[in-house]
Each structure stands twice: as structure tokens, then as C-alpha cells.
Amino acid sequence: MKQPTPRGEISALVLATIAAPAPTQEESLVQLGTLVAERVSGTPDILRDDDLQLALFCLYELHYSGIDDAGDDWEWHPGLLGIRRLIEGAFEQAVRSRVVLGDLPDSSSEAVCAELFRMTGEDAGPSMSRFVARSATEDQLREFLVHKSIYQLKEADPHTWAIPRLTGRAKAALVEIQADEYGNGLPTRMHSALFARTMRDLGMDDTYGAYLDAVPAITLASNNLMSLFGLNRRLRGAIVGHLAAYEMTSSQPNRLHSRGFKRHGHGEEAREYFDEHVEADAVHEQIAGRDMAGGLVEQDPRLLPDVLFGAAAGIALDVLMTQHILEAWEAGRSSLHHVGAVAA
Amino acid sequence: MSAEHASGADHTQGGERDGADVPQRSLNSGSATPVSVVACANGPLLVRGDFELVGTDGQELPRTRRTVALGRCGASVLKPYCDGSHKLIGFTTDP
Ligand code: FES
Question: How far apart are CA A188 and CA A164, in angstroms?
Fold first, then answer.
């Protein structure tokens, strides 16, 4: 991924540090530690802190595609991992304090599945998909793709981290879902590839991270949430719950997204990404709820609260992101961080 | 899943959920993965394994994935597949 533009002193120092060889950066790491420690306790809202969210996104990115000019040995550099833990610890705490779980169901797979369907079926406020279907302008459709592109161009990757941490029924279920996400052996059928085609059809840049500078902190936060859950084994319940909730809130919204793109005259190729998800996720949500999440809790009932937390956290951040975008649009503004960055 | 794979004519290992009594199979043995149908509460029938999905004329129905969810609430616009509409109409499988 190309280096993004810094959004404050922390993201600037992270990017400058990893662009140099690790042995020369002892001082920067000490300075970074001090800055981050001050900021995580002082920030009014870490979910909307552009500087911290971008810094965390870049630190996680070292585990995915890497960042141009950052040496590969930074990925497991203990000093840099320490910085990441400072930020992600505060981030996790902030997310946990926003999420209220109801009464826990029993730990049978059917009960877990039913609770996840209940949580994802609750009215969570204004609907992005209905807006896209009925009212979004062509420019807003492009903004919508900009927000989504941060995740969708690496769709499924954060959840894949969970595979070696699961066993038996839960693992088989996750792999069954991920195989579909990754196109069942056909690169052009990968969901990330279908999304890239949609972007190209609208004349947009489909390079991974091309629009990173354009998205607001909350969009980064919803991506960082998946990496937080995916990269920490102790949060395997949460990443599983997150995926289940994601699949359970996909079929109908994608049908509406497709309708919005059709309304603006975009053809089947551009809409295939959405259309594919309507059918695929009607299958995935059943496998994810019952076999993956339910199966995991049956194997290890201690993970039940984290499974539900992961689902609730995903929903909560999605709601915040939707609010951010729709509020901007309703006020006649762009929802993006750097408006200029969306030009095709 | 590609169209050929979806036809049910090939053989893939391990479709079983618990894996308990699945016999070892060679990929080319000519034997098929047993079909399992899960009746999902308040939702579709989830069908896994090697099977053919045909219309009343015996012709294969368009199918793009190995495991399918067959709708049973009547509201899907992708019949015979489920499209999640059962949640919107409050479909229930309780007797
Ligand atoms: S059973 Fe899912 S749409 Fe009818």
C-alpha cells in the first residue's frame, strides 16, 4: 500500500519511523511512546481521532500488504508492537464501553444463532442501504464506494486470521465461508475482485488503499476493529461474532445497494458485487450463526460474551459510520475527509 | 464455485460438519459426499454435499455455489434460493 498522508504528529511519526531502518529509530520509538501515551489518555474520542486511527491502521497494515518504503522487519518489531498495543488497548476499551450486551442466551448453537439474528435484526437507526437505493446521487454512490473500498478490496482477510485458532465444526464453517469469499479458486470471483470491478466501472482507482486519505476516522475505526479482533487470539470469539453479524446484515442491504446503482444506469457488471452477496450471504449467515459462532460457543462456552461483543461492536461502529455519512449528505456536504481525493 | 463444480459430478472431501463417521474417500473414487439438509429455524433449508438441483422438467437449475440455501418462506426474489427476505416478513417455523 502506498504511504498515506499523515493526519497529525503521531501518524506522521509512525510513517517516518517505519520508512527508515529499525536500528536507526530507537529515539523515534521512545518519542512515539510518550506521544501516544499522552494522546490515548487525552483524546476526547479515540473512535473519531484521525491521527490515532490512521496510525493504528498503518501499524496493522504491516501484517497485511505492507506499506511502501517500510521494511518488512518492522512487522514484529517489539518496540513498534508496544506502540500498537498502547493504541489498540485504548481503542478496545472505548469500544467495550460503548457496547451494552443484553442477557446472555444459553450456550447451545441454536440459542447463540438466534441471539445473533435478534441483535442484527434490531432497528439500528437510519439505513444506509435504503438511502443508496432511493436517494443517493452519483457522487454519493462514489463516496459510498470510497468508504467501502478500505475493507472490500481486502474483503475477508481480517477474519481469515481466525482460521488456525478454531477447530472442528467452527473451523470448517469459517473455511466454507471464506472459500466462497475468495472465489473458490477463481481469482476473478473473489469478492475483492468483484468489488474492484465495480470501482473500475465507475471510473475509480481500484488499487488497494488508493482512497485511504479520503476516509474519515470512523471508517478507519471500523476497519481497525476487524484487525484488532483478527490479530489477537484472545479475541477469537469477537472476530467470529463480528463475521456472523456482518453476514447477517448483508443480503438485504446488498439488494438495495444494487438497486441504487441500477437507478443510476450502472450495468450488471458493476452490480455483480452486490448481487452476488444477496445469495451468498443468505447462505453464509446460516453457516456463520449456527456452525461457526454457535459451534465455537458449544466447544468453549467461556467465549459466549466475546462472540456477542464482537457482533455488537461491529454493529455499533457501523451505525456510527452510517450516521457520519448520512449526516454529511443530508447537510449537503461530502462525507469524506479529503474531498479532493475522490476525483476519478 | 464454478458451474462444473456445482453440477454435483465431482467429488470433494469432507462435507460433514462433525467429521465423526465420514469414510476416507479418494477424490476420484466416484463416490459422492452424502447430502445433508439443515432446516434452519425461521429460515431456509441449507443443503450441502453432492446433489443435483433440477426443475420439474429435469433440467438443472442455475447454481453458482456448492452449498445452497433453499427458501421456504415464499418471499425470496431469487427463488428457489433464499435471499434473506424471511427476516423481513417475520417468517417463523414454529409449529
Ligand atoms: S427462506 Fe429466506 S427468503 Fe424465504
Answer: 26
